[in-house]
């Protein structure tokens, strides 16, 4: 059985890094858009 690996991307901002699945990212008007919420990516303040 063949399995597929999920491709991920690392985002960095404000001294923090987060690894997200590439499938949750898209480009819109030159901006990177995620299907995940800001809180789920960077955590609650």
Please outline what is shown here.
This protein has one helix spanning 38-42, and strands spanning 8-13, 16-21, 25-28, 31-34. By secondary structure, the chain is mainly β. Residues 15-30 have a biased composition (Low complexity).
Account of the protein in words:
The chain has 45 residues and is mainly beta. Helix content is 11%, strand content 44%. The protein has one helix and four strands. It has one helix at 38-42; strands at residues 8-13, 16-21, 25-28, 31-34. The protein has a two-stranded antiparallel ribbon. A hairpin with a 2-residue loop joins strand 1 and strand 2. The longest helix has 5 residues, at 38-42. It is globular. The chain starts with 7 loop residues before the first strand and ends with a helix. The mean pLDDT is 87. Residues 15-30 have a biased composition (Low complexity). Residues 1-30 are annotated as: Disordered. Residues 1-11 have a biased composition (Polar residues).
Write the layout of secondary structure elements.
Layout lengths: L7 E6 L2 E6 L3 E4 L2 E4 L3 H5 L3
Antiparallel strand pairs: 1-2, 3-4
Summarize this structure as a short list of keywords or feature phrases.
1 helix; 45 residues; two-stranded antiparallel ribbon; two-stranded antiparallel sheet; globular; mainly beta; 44% strand
Oligomer: single chain
Percent range for β-strand residues: 35-45%
Helix content: 10-25%
What does the largest sheet look like? 2 strands, antiparallel
With helices defined by DSSP (H or I, 4 residues minimum), what is the helix count? 1
What structural class do helix, strand and pairing data support?
mainly beta
Uncertain residue ranges = none
> Can you count the beta strands?
4
Shape summary: globular
Radius of gyration: 13 Å
Distance between the termini: 43 Å
* Helix/strand order, N-terminal first: EEEEH
User: Taking all residues together, what is the mean pLDDT?
Assistant: 87
Instruction: Give me the side-by-side strand order of the main sheet.
Output: 1-2
């Amino acid at each position: 059985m063949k399995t597929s690996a999920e491709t991920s991307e690392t985002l960095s901002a404000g001294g923090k890094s987060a690894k997200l699945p590439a499938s949750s990212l898209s480009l819109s008007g030159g901006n990177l858009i995620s299907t995940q919420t800001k809180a789920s990516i960077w955590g609650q303040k």
